Amino acid sequence: MADRRILTGEKIVVEIGNLKIGTNHPPVYIAGPCSVESKEQIMETALTLKEIGVDILRGGVFKPRTSPYAFQGLGVEGLEYLKEAGEAAGLPIVTELMDEGHMDIVAEYADIIQIGSRNMFNYSLLKTIGSLNKPILLKRGMCATIEEWIMAAEYIAVHGNKNIILCERGIRGYDNYTRNTLDLAAVPIMKKETGLPIIVDPSHGTGIRELVEPMSKAALACGADGLMIEVHPNPPCALSDGHQSLTFEEYRQLRRNK
User: Fold this and answer.
1) What residue stretches are annotated with the DAHP synthetase I/KDSA domain (predicted)?
2) pTM given for the model
């Protein structure tokens, strides 16, 4: 691992409004649908999650899909819907940035900019967002080693932005029973190596709705600073990732059993 590093392990707390991510007490809950599908869908989700208990509203508007025929997101229109829903519920929002061409408008609307698994290795994009004065949620690449993940965070930090929240979302293994293999050992390792706050995404980490709650508990038990959970008003009708999305009632149960 590189000897010269900006992120040396000294504890960093990322602040979004009144939220402090990195203190571990209490954990931060980020929830919402994989994709913003309509104004009505995201507004219903935001207001319901607020009532149940959530800190940050998530929703994808630019979607990196494996198939070019899959739903690609609503783009800027979806970004406007997400922002409006967040404001109505009094919640900050996080959404994914896929390319530099959308950076200015995503930075204008979003409180946190997510760099997804597929873009963890997009070093040009990482350099560019390093110049922003905006919290960055950096997801682990689906095949990334610990060192590669650390170096991705370094790309952002070395260009001036240390407001980085790491997200463990599972890595690909040889067993395809689950969507990915959720590497919870990465939680204490990354905290020790970088000092950055880290959350866990058990939805992508397992790809199985029934595993989201037990793996959420496991994530918090090993020191995660929060959770990122996919929740949809009607998962069977979701345009993306419905099989791993919780219903409102399932999310309520998860919060009740935390």
Assistant:
1) 14-253
2) 0.96
